[in-house]
Design goal:
By secondary structure, the chain is of the alpha/beta class. The protein has 13 helices and 14 strands.
Length: 353
């Protein structure tokens, strides 16, 4: 079975495609997307293709290093109908290809996003978030893009100083910049500043959706985030391995909610503003997250020390809960609280095994 044959997954796609958003802004437009085969990007592509089946006529330019991966992930008729076009590209290089006219929307989603990558590919982690972003911003200015969205992260907030329960968009906690692990959050911070610089100096319209720890059935099997490892163990019917005491208290987001939030910010957000995509119904400690996934399969939570590479890539933040009130003012609502999202994720992935 493929994702497209799974009723639950297609229900998720249809839910987002059916939201009351100003879809007319994408009518007959072009959308360029880095990270198109990633967890969030691939779900977004499926939503746009669903809307195209309803007459949206939005062309997606999918940027990536592997056309084979893109053609394996997406249905062949997306390409055959001309709505999905693959562009072989490494975002760390200047984007040069023949394109007539303007690119209406650009979304920079490409990024190293899990601990092993942070620890083993620290240069790529930083350059994708800064140089890759700058290359796409330059392309956006050159091609008169209507709006540019830079997918930022909850990690830009750093460690909770103990003065608030929820991080709003103006909060800044502590990050020790003189560490290997700092490459990811610091480059995301720099990326946000770069977006503001292009807004001020080049007149570019930019928005910054800040994503929480996202999970769902479109996750890559190579993902080494704690929640992804837990999910893989649950799908395999094994005990959940917890590599800490599990008291870390974080916000999480099911992929369908992450994409609905991304679209809300893209289509409804204000120029220059950042928005947390988060809802307290999915705030949970790592220990309780492990327990839910163990319960789904009647298994246990076992404790194990992380190896040196894993430890180097783990976030040091112990409490990072985001305030989602700003994006809710745009009309966004979460549909999938943590229990529902985890159960759907495991059920869908089991059908693909």
């Amino acid at each position: 079975m493929t994702l497209y044959q799974n009723e639950l997954y297609m229900d998720d796609v249809s839910y987002v495609a059916g939201l009351s958003l100003p879809w007319e802004k994408l009518q007959g437009k072009t959308l360029m997307l880095s990270g198109a085969t990633g967890m969030i990007g691939s779900f977004l592509v499926d939503v746009i293709m669903q809307k195209n089946a309803e007459g949206l006529n939005c062309t997606v330019y999918a940027l990536g290093r592997s056309e084979e991966r893109a053609r394996t992930r997406f249905q062949a008729d997306f390409f055959e109908k001309g709505y999905l076009k693959f562009v072989k590209y490494d975002v760390r290089e200047p984007l040069i290809f023949t394109f007539n006219g303007s690119v209406d929307y650009i979304l920079h989603l490409a990024s190293n996003t899990h601990p092993v990558q942070y620890a083993t590919e620290p240069i790529s982690t930083i350059t994708t978030n800064i140089i890759g972003l700058m290359n796409l911003l330059d392309f956006a200015v050159e091609h008169k893009t209507s709006r540019f969205a830079f997918a930022s992260s909850n990690e830009i907030y750093g460690e909770n100083r103990g003065d608030v329960e929820l991080f709003d968009e103006s909060y800044m906690g502590y990050i020790d910049s003189n560490t290997l692990r700092a490459g990811y959050p610091e480059s995301k911070r720099c990326g946000e500043a770069l977006c503001q610089a292009y807004k001020a100096e080049k007149g570019l319209d930019v928005v910054i959706p800040r994503l929480t720890r996202t999970y769902g059935p479109t996750m890559l099997m190579s993902d080494t985030k704690a929640i992804s490892q837990f999910i893989k163990k649950s799908v395999a019917g094994e005990d959940i391995v917890l590599k800490s005491e599990g008291y870390q208290y974080y916000s999480y987001t099911y992929v369908a909610d992450a994409v609905s939030g991304l679209l809300t910010v893209l289509l409804c957000g204000e120029n220059g503003e950042a928005y947390n995509i988060a809802d307290i119904s999915s705030d949970i400690t790592l220990r309780n997250l492990a327990r839910i996934l163990a319960r789904i399969n009647g298994k246990e939570v076992v404790f194990e020390l992380p190896d040196a590479v894993e430890s180097a890539g783990y976030s040091k933040a112990t409490k990072a809960r985001l305030d989602g009130s700003k994006i809710r003012s745009l009309g966004w609502e979460s549909q999938y609280e943590i229990n529902k999202g985890l159960e759907r994720t495991v059920e869908i992935l089991k059908s693909l095994a």
